[in-house]
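dumping this here so i dont lose it again. seq + smiles for magnesium ion
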Amino acid sequence: MASVTLHDVSKSYDAAVPAVADLTLEVVDGEFMVLVGPSGCGKSTLLRMIAGFVAPSEGSITIGGRDVTDVRPRDRDVAMVFQSYALYPHMTVRQNLEFGLKRRRQPRAAIDEQVSEAARVLELEPLLDRHPDTLSGGQRQRVAIGRAMVREPAVYLMDEPLSNLDAKLRVSMRSELARLHATLGVTTIYVTHDQTEAMTLGDRVCVLDGGVLQQVGEPRALYERPVNRFVAGFIGSPAMNFVEAEVIDDALVYGALRIPLDGRLRDELDGRRSVTVGIRPGDFDLDGDGAVRVTVTPELLEYLGGEQAVEFPLAERGERFVALVSPRAPIGLGRPLELCVASDRIHLFDHGSGLALRSGRDAVRRPLETR
Amino acid sequence: MRRPGFHLDAWRFTLYGAALIVAGICLFPYLVMVSTALKPDAELAGAQSWLPTAPNWSIFVDIWTDETVLRGLRNSLIIAFGVTFLTLACAIPAAYALARHRFPLRDGFMTVVLVTQMLSPIVVIVPLFQTATDLGLLGGFPGVILASSAFILPFSIWLLTGFFSAISTELEEAATLDACGRLATLWHVILPLSLPGLAATAVYSFLFGWNEFVISLTFLSAVPEKWPVTVGVFSSIGQWDIGWQALMMTALISTLPVLLLFSFVQKYLDRGFATLIGR
Ligand SMILES: Nc1ncnc2c1ncn2[C@@H]1O[C@H](COP(=O)(O)OP(=O)(O)O)[C@@H](O)[C@H]1O
Ligand SMILES: [Mg+2]
C-alpha cells in the first residue's frame, strides 16, 4: 500500500494545448480516488503517467514516498485494469492470472495460492480453464480485476473499467468494486467520465476539465460546495440550473424568479450587480417554507418512478429549468405551480470567471481542496 | 408456395458443379504428369494418347533411387527452409518496429519497402551476381538464401506490420506491467496473436524458396551437386534427348512438400486471409 503524489505534473502531446496542465494531487494511502471529467479532459493521460506509459513533460510523481518519475512501469508496483480489459486472448483465465507472477519468478506454491484466492473472491473458479473470448463482459471484467489483484500491488489503476458493461451489470460491478476496496484497502485511482460512478465509488473525487484540476474533495463537498460553475454543472444529475440574475431592490431577479438577499448572499455578492445563480433540481420543494418562492407553468413532465422531473421556463424565451418533485404531486402541463427553494440552497458564481462566490470568512476556511 | 428445398438444391448443384470444374482444371496437369511418367518410350514418340496402354509402374520405385533427384529435393528443402527462417527472422523485428514506433520518415520507409517488392529477380540478376561474386557468396546456399529472402522481405514486412498494428496497445501495456520487456512482449503476446500472419509469411517464403530458379541457376551453376529440383529438372532437358518420364516424376514429387505444408497451416492461412480482407 502506498500514497501517490503528483507534483506540478504537465503533459503536452504535439498539440498547443497541454493534455494535463500543472497538476498537483495527493492520493492518501488506502484511499479510493476517482478522476472524473468529460471525455478528452486528460484523465487517461494522467493515469497513464502514474502507470509510467506516458512520461510527464514536467513535474514529478511519487508512489509510497519514492520518486518514480523515471522508473519503468513494471518497477512501480502498480497494477492496472484497462478499459478494454486487455486480457491475453490466447491464454486461459488461469494463465492470464498467473502470467505476471510467473514473469516475476514467484514460487509455484505462492502462485497457486494467489490465483485460487483471487478466483475465490471474484467467483472465477468455474471459469479458470476457459479462454477470454468465451466469457461474458462481466466475467472478463472480473478476470481483469483478478489479474490486478494477484499481483498484490501498492496501487490499483483503473481506466473506465465499467464503461463496456450494460447498465445493470455496471451497477452491480460498482458495488463489487466498492466491496473489494473495503476488504483489500489498497490505494486505488479510478478514472471515469460518469459522475454517478465517481460519487458512489470515491472516497474523494478529483474533477478535471481541459487538463486542469478543478476541485478535489469528498463527494458531498463537491455536491454541496462546488468551487466553480463547471464542477457545479458536472456533478449531480439532472444538472444544476443556471441563470444570469441582476440585483434589483434588495433581491436577485431573473424573470419570475426573485431571490431576496439575506446576509450570506449579500456577503457573497460583495457589491456585484449581476451574477450567475445556480439551483439544483432536487432543491425545489412543493410545499416547503423556503424563502424563495416562484410560480411557474410546467411545459414538460417526465415521470422517473421515484420522482418526477418538471421543466418550466422562468422568463419568456428563456432556457428551461428542471425541478425534481414527488411523483405523486398533482401537477399538470400548463397548470401554474408554486415552487420554493431554501435560501441556503442558492449557489452564486462570478459571471466572468465562473468561480463560486464565497463570503470573506468562508473563502479562508475553504481553500480549493475541500475536505 | 414454392418449396424452399428446390432452391437450395439448385444452388448447391451449381456450386458443386463450379467447384468440380475448377478442381478439374487444377488437377489436369497432374493427370498429364502421371500419365506421361507411366508411358514407355515407344508411346511417347508416336501418336499421342491420354492414357498409357502398358503403364510402366516401376518408375514410382526407380525415381527414389535416382541420386540426382534425391539430392535436388534435399537442396530445395535446405534453400526453402533457409529462406523461410531468414525472412521471418528479419521481417518480425522490422514489422514490429514499424507497427509500434513513430519515427521520422516511417511512411517514406514503408513506401520504399513496397516499391522494392515490384522488382523481379530476373531484372536485377546481373548486378546481384556481381554483388554475390564480390562478397564471395557464389556457389553456396547462403548466397542463394540471402538473395531470395531479400525478394520476399518487403511483402512479409507489410503483411506482418498489418497484423502487429491490429493488436491493441493496451494488451502490450498489460504485458509491460506483467514484467515483460520488449522481447518478452513480442514473444509472449504479439507472436502468439499473429500466428495466421506468421503462417502466411512462412508459407509464402517457403514456396518462394522452393520454386526459386533464376538465382540458384546463376549462383550455383558451377556446382551441380547443390542444384535444387528446379535447376535439376531444367538441366535434364538435354539437347537431343528429354527424359520425359523422369522429368514428370520429379515435377510430381516436387509438389509434395507444398501440399503437405498447406495441409498443416491451412487453418491459420484461412484466418490470415480473412483478417487481410477485413473479415
Ligand atoms: N498519444 C496521444 N498523442 C496525442 N494526443 C493525445 C494522445 N493521447 C491523448 N491525446 C490527447 O490528449 C487529450 C486528453 O486525452 P485523454 O487523456 O485520453 O482524455 P480522457 O481519458 O479524459 O478522455 C485529448 O485531447 C487527446 O486527443
Ligand atoms: Mg480515457
